[in-house]
Fold:
Amino acid sequence: MCGIVGYAGRQSAAPIIVDGLRKLEYRGYDSAGVAVHDGRGIEVVRALGKLRALSEAVAKRPLEGTLGIGHTRWATHGRPSEENAHPHVAGKVAVVHNGIIENHVALRRELIAEGVRFSSETDTEIIAHLVDRALRNGARSLFEAVRASLQLVTGAYAIAVLNADEPLTIVAARHGSPLVLGIGENEILCGSDISALLAHTRDMVFLEDGDLVELRGPGPEAGPTARIQTMDGVPVERPTKRIDWSPTMAERGGFKHFMLKEIHEQPDAIAATLRGRIDLENGDVHGGEIGLDPVSARAIRRVYIIACGTSYHAALVGRYWLEALARVPTTVELGSEVSNRPAVFFEDDLVIAVSQSGETFDTLAAVKAAKAAGARVLAVSNVLDSAIPRLAHGELYTRAGPEIGVASTKCFTAQLTALLLVSVYLGRQRGALDADAGRSLLQGACAVPGFINELLGDADYVRTIATSLVDATDVLFLGRGYNYPIALEGALKLKEISYAHAEGYAAGEMKHGPIALIDASLPVVVIAPKDASYFKTLGNVQEVRAREGRVIALATKGDEAMHDLAEHIIWLPEAPEHVLPFLTVVPLQLLAYYVASRKGHDVDQPRNLAKTVTVE
Ligand code: AGP
Structure:
């Protein structure tokens, strides 16, 4: 959590940093700050609350200078407040930090014993004091002082540091939290992810854990430079990669919120994730990125999917496909639960880690455990070179483009796309699917963007239904088979952004408990397309109606029976059964969006949440 940006160039640094932080606000938004070197010394402005407060503070107190660092925070150590906002200053040093310093208590005690006075409750301020102490003790440069300080620190971090005595230099380091360099013309930047830097360059250098880098802004005679070393002082080269995301992909593009824009981007995200990966002629999937040759694919005894939150729901749909299409036993586990029990992995397991950000702490920790046990790991992520794909043997990137709304939407359907590709690949290699079956499944996948466009055409009707849910304090979502995870996802979306209590349930479980909740005040959203379990789900609808529950149904066009039972119906196009989860989730995303928007909530940055959860 938390986002950092650094800029060294020829333009005024503060507006560039604030603009970069705006792209990172999804990582945390309880306070923010910026420090700029004006040639004489370092000026700091910090503000409690969202980035807007920092922009206003910077407008009141303009910062001169072409080199600086900034931060947007999601509180871990110390409540959200201006004092706890970064940058933290000690002597001539200013620091921004993303991550957690685990030995902060001992270090703080040691520094206090030496007479240091702290002005915040954060673990980050310790780094500032350590670097300041190293400089006062004779370190030759900021680079050396940061190196010496980090050797005392345990935990995860990405940091950027300024020294008042070095007006052209930012020192940055990465250990367990992401940090990317952007190499522009006459300017060099660093940031927590590429979206913060895209307005300046598409040429990015992804730092590795343990990298320490000295960024020097352009001087009168020389251009900007980046010097990278390991913590032990060994120089290293990291390749520069050209990114194909455009800066406008991280803009709202006329939509009121990023979430609404991202819901509408799903047809493109799915089409992009399929592109170049399918072989329709042979009814197969190009498996190179999956990292499993046909022999290894046949040797897999079990698939074990690890994920959290929305990605976990995608994984549950994936299990359905893996078992139905590839006939491979599949377990799905929450990242946080893997570390809370003695999970067993085998060398012939294929572990699939599904994570939009590629950084989620619990998923990452579980992947490390699986890898240590000898399992093969495949990462499904939307963020190039993020921590989880780096650890994996294969990476199947979703190509959803940057997802800014904290509530995940387009990454979910892009994850479904990737999991369907893996399922067809394994099905073909393991002989569970022949070429015709593979072709028909893939043709179904190719038709999904068109179906979703059709559903998006009915967004206004979903908005009308949302009006009837604005005052609901509880909502039940029911679905069966592959639509059970969609019920879970519909409930998660609603609670994340509308703050209403919502529960997703397997429709077959209704009579084992939740039926007790049903009365005239409880809206029940039932996902009931015409599929193999349609009649059973219709039975649930009748049971809800018999108890005067209010039914909002997702049903296939022309379903007369549903027409007579439900208060509202969102019509689904007739589509092949295996692609229905792509379609049923879209109206539920819209429903959550319109309820939250109607309530006047900050849809893109819901309270207490952050998009990237890098803490346990
Ligand atoms: C989704 O709407 C959530 N904000 C959250 O549940 C998220 O899916 C979860 O934290 C996992 O994130 P990841 O995909 O980046 O690992």
Summary: The pocket of 2-deoxy-2-amino glucitol-6-phosphate is lined by residues 308-311, 355-357, 360, 363, 406-408, 496, 609, 612-613 (CB under 6 Å). Residues 435-456 form the longest helix (22 residues).
